[in-house]
Amino acid sequence: MANFLFILSKDGNEEATRCFQFAKIAHSQGHRADICLINDGVRWADKSRDLTLKTGTNDCAEDYLPYLVEHRVPIAV
Question: pTM of the predicted model, to two decimals?
């Protein structure tokens, strides 16, 4: 089992979606995954944020974030 720390420092939808996706993949494969929101990335802690905005690959933060919350993956701000 490996430990992963994913740092999100940008407000971009693409960046956030990838961060959440990679954290979900790592965690679902049995690794420890932590997420740290810094700089403009802290805007993703806003519960009123639209998580359904699609990326160029037609996925969105809502495809991954509920898994992380349900499995209590640590998200630090």
Answer: 0.94
